[in-house]
Structure formats: C-alpha cells, structure tokens
Specification:
The protein contains four helices and no strands. The chain is mostly helical. Helix 2 packs antiparallel against helix 3 and helix 2 packs parallel to helix 4. The protein is about 70% helix and about 0% strand.
C-alpha cells in the first residue's frame, strides 16, 4: 500500500504544508487535473485487462467480469507463458494506476481539509482565494 511508504508520507506532508501555508486553490486545480488524467488511465488499464478494444469513447467504467480475469494466486506464483506475461503486465499496470488514484484522492482530501481549516481560522470573512477554491470545488 502506497500510503504506508516513507516516500508517500513525505510527499503527503509536503502537500499538506503547501495547502496550509500557500494558496490551496492552485493545488486543488493541479490535483484535480492529475486525478482526471489518472482516472482516464485507470479506465484504459481496466479495458486492457478485460481485453476490450481501447477506444476514444468517453465510456463509463465497465468492471463487469474484471475479477474473472484475475487469477486467485499471488502474481509471483503465476506460471510464465506468453499469455500470462500480458496478463501480469496488465495487472501490474492496473494496480499501479489504482494506487496513483488512491494517493491523489487522499492528497485532494488533505488539501480540502487544510483549506477548510484555514478558512475557519480566518473567521467569517473569506478572502478572494478562499471564495475561488470553494467555487472550484462546487463546480
């Protein structure tokens, strides 16, 4: 799990510090754009694992039948073959993509919490940047 790695913890602390001491609106926009990109990549990974034709259509996630393609053994126990090589590659890419989305969602939640706390600490009167990030979140 990436949330338990020291690199992830360090980056998460840096994100929280930036959100606390600088403009959270910019960070929210950056994280939202990165998250959108990683979610699109996740959809491609799901389609590759399901052996679907990868198209440019903006389809919703179709996870039906996905677990049937995943063997009930650890990845390192899967016997090597040409077919399994593709399966292992697609699974590892899918897992990395899921971890990336997870980290970005947690980072976005951290920034939103820090921005809300900062807004509450500032009192009732919101500054321009606080109004802008709240407007950005609601859109």
């Amino acid at each position: 799990n990436v949330t338990h790695s020291s690199t992830s913890s360090t980056l998460s602390a840096a994100v929280k510090t930036i959100a606390t001491h600088h403009d959270p609106q910019k960070l929210i926009k950056l994280l939202a754009a990165a998250l959108e990109s990683r979610i699109l990549h996740l959809n491609i990974c799901i389609k590759a694992l399901r052996n679907d034709r990868i198209s440019d259509d903006a389809e919703k996630f179709m996870c039906d039948g996905l677990t049937e393609r995943i063997p009930c053994v650890p990845l390192h126990d899967i016997q090597e073959s040409e077919g399994n090589s593709t399966l292992i590659h697609n699974l590892s890419t899918l897992f990395r993509s899921i971890i990336s989305v997870d980290w970005l969602v947690n980072s976005l939640a951290t920034v939103v919490k820090a921005a809300c706390q900062r807004s509450n600490d500032a009192g009732v009167g919101l500054g321009r940047s606080e109004r802008e990030w709240k407007k950005e979140i609601s859109s």
